[in-house]
């Protein structure tokens, strides 16, 4: 199974999913809105998310490794190091080669990287401490249209099955390729992969027919499926309000101290 | 196990809030239309078909082939699904795939999800659809038209989506136009070849095994003028405007700033708050107080939380 | 009572899968539908609650199978498909078992009761929050049965229920089916199960009824079995 969820007995895990989801969104929004180079505010945001991670009792190392997923994307912001305006730092590699790094560019680059990383930690904390089905029902309660929720829940239901089928196709291919990955031309290899994808699609189309039959046999008429969700308590409101206020305060601090 | 990664899922923090909001709104509107159209076309089969096919596309994205050394090619799938199901259903399938990637695997951010949906689920499908339709009109032989339109549509879908992605980064001030656009374009011109080859393989497999299925997509092909025009416009604008923008020293930033869009959008958020919300106090004093409150609150919550957790585990 | 008159069915590719089927099944009967692979068993079952419809007449308790009667018919005939992964499409077992009753229009607390009872009938009490993909093969099968038991059907239709089960799970499933009061219509080529569970066998070959009679008479007759590729 491809579950990202990690079980722990913690406050974060037990927290109402809607509270967690909304808080995560507000947190990321506030982080995104804090201006470039407001380091003290970043530190406060980081404290909040670290507090969340500590309370969740999840392995920090694991979350850290998962947070590296978007590292390559930092490349997209890399050029502003050099193209942003004066003043510049000068790095001399030798007599002839000198690199000019823009100071505002540097500030911006580091800000983007830190903000992105903190947002990522928040999203990872949410998905590691919440079953996806709970997340879906929370999103449903928060107003995500029913058909989308139903489609996503069916997708999630069949994801591991499809991935297993894909893996066994890939295994069958690899076991016949005698450990070599560079046989024939790229085009041929891509074509083989394409046929595997086509095979998966066919199976999924046929499966969707059978699943539809199984649903129809139990009276399904096309109305989206039904889900239950924990109700919102007074305590939940308080926790959410406090969390949101905290994020807004940090944001205000960031803007003021700019 | 993580899904195959394309350099297209923009994480949070890379896009400005105005860009994110505008694209969220556009995506919500288009996905809403897609929901209505598909439930009309497919009836009660809509939900199982979309959900299970989305799972298959997700799994298909994880299948890859080695290109050279450590790099490998994989699939986005927008063109492939468009060929199989037609544009509206394809938008829903891609929406599900991109959303799950963001919600569960953090492949792409949550605030930037609107833009990622716009790029991969909407632009990807619109462009594919426009090209499929045009090529199918030009080439008469059914089989040649199918295969060649698949190849061209899938390459262009990747290429144009990457341009869109680059333009958004430029508009957000994250990347300079004269670097971001050519860099994204050249990387994805290559990735697009992989996409085209895989799509061709997949379509030829379906063609030999279940030719009848390819008619689901073409049945709805005749009617969607809106998408045809939308897709063509997006393709043409991005394909022509991007090189122009990137050759200008300040690129799109210049264009946007000239129209006052960026500066108004960004500055207004930051500058209005202190003056109106808290008159009479200096910014510094307020900032210090707020920082103090926040620090105390965080430490307080942390101590209580840890203490409680300890108690629970020891008992 | 299930009545089938002159039922003919062609798949869209033109293949005739059922050819002039005539049948009557009475309430409480335990019937095995036996035939080789591709004989048309699954196709016939799919007509019993209107998933497939073509030429001919199918009546359940006097209601003709047509679009208008579908909700009624689907409450009367519970259908367990061959592959539990097709049957269990929800994220939790509880939700899957609740699916039928919800579409029958029951109120929330009644649905909960029905889920509880159905799960306890198949000895899966407390499985409400388990994920279908985490169940064993035998558990999946029993959960599939629960998803239709919760609708309180009068006729229980099962397509190759023992296929792919290990001996222990097969035994458990058969024990379960023995306790159920409903009419059973089981498509299978597990002849031992047919002998154990049913009183009547309908033999299908190439979309036609080749024999219909007491289970012992047919399944112990080697000649008939040979003729129909079952031995
Ligand atoms: N979806 C379909 N399209 C076309 N032919 C089919 C389809 N499903 C089954 N058939 C054909 O109909 C015949 C009867 O199939 P089926 O009822 O599944 O047999 P059984 O369940 O007895 O093994 C077979 O010849 C099979 O190939
Ligand atoms: Mg069968």
List keywords for this structure.
heterotrimer, B: 315 residues, mainly alpha, Arp2/3 complex 21 kDa subunit ARPC3, two-stranded antiparallel sheet, C: 231 residues, alpha/beta, Rossmann fold, 4-stranded antiparallel β-sheet, 10 helices, 10 strands, binds adenosine-5'-diphosphate, binds magnesium ion
The small molecules bound here are: adenosine-5'-diphosphate, magnesium ion
Shape of chain C: globular
Helix content of chain B: over 70%
- Sketch the topology of chain C as an H/E string, one letter per element: EEEHEEHEHHHHEHEHEEHH
Task: Please outline the helices and strands.
The complex is a heterotrimer of chains A (258), B (315) and C (231).
Chain A: H1 11-14, H2 17-33, H3 39-56, H4 60-66, H5 80-83, E1 88-92, E2 98-102, H6 103-129, H7 132-141, H8 146-176, H9 186-217, H10 234-256
Antiparallel strand pairs in A: 1-2
Helix pairs in contact in A: 2-6, 2-10, 3-6, 3-10, 7-8, 8-9
Chain B: H1 17-42, H2 46-62, E1 65-66, E2 72-73, H3 78-85, H4 87-105, H5 113-138, H6 142-171, H7 177-209, H8 214-219, H9 225-247, H10 251-258, H11 261-277, H12 283-314
Antiparallel strand pairs in B: 1-2
Chain C: E1 2-10, E2 16-25, E3 30-34, H1 41-48, E4 55-60, E5 63-64, H2 70-76, E6 77-80, H3 84-87, H4 93-104, H5 108-121, H6 137-149, E7 155-159, H7 167-179, E8 183-188, H8 191-197, E9 200-205, E10 208-214, H9 215-219, H10 222-227
Parallel strand pairs in C: 3-8, 3-9, 6-7, 7-8
Antiparallel strand pairs in C: 1-2, 1-4, 4-5, 9-10
Helix pairs in contact in C: 4-5, 4-6, 5-6, 6-7
The complex binds adenosine-5'-diphosphate and magnesium ion (MG).
Adenosine-5'-diphosphate binds next to helix 1 of chain C.
